[in-house]
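re: ur question from earlier - yeah i can do the single chain one, its not a big deal. heres the input i used so u can compare w yours
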Amino acid sequence: MDYLYDAGIVLTVAVCTFLTRLFPFALFGRKKGTHTMVAYIGQILPSAVIAVLVVYCLKTIEITSLPAFAPQAIAIAVVAVLHVWKRNFLISIGAGTVCYMVMVQVVFR
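and the output i got, formated as tokens:
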């Protein structure tokens, strides 16, 4: 019975994956150019994701003591400087995350 259950899970995942791959072609057709809505979403989505991440990360910030606030402030500065310098979301977010984790785990224990 376990094999039947496992096969059902694999089949469900395969069908869902196939449908998500098929959905854009069914929605937009097989046009040669990029649809204007897709281009707009591709242009605006990175900034929207960054805004959501900033709000989520800073919603519980505590300014009461330096060890509680300093890791976030330093990581925010690293992200801002790297993004202005490199203009690459992935590098900015990755370096900010690594910086924050080092600050929390090593520096501000």
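DSSP finds four helices and no strands in the chain. not sure if urs matches, ping me
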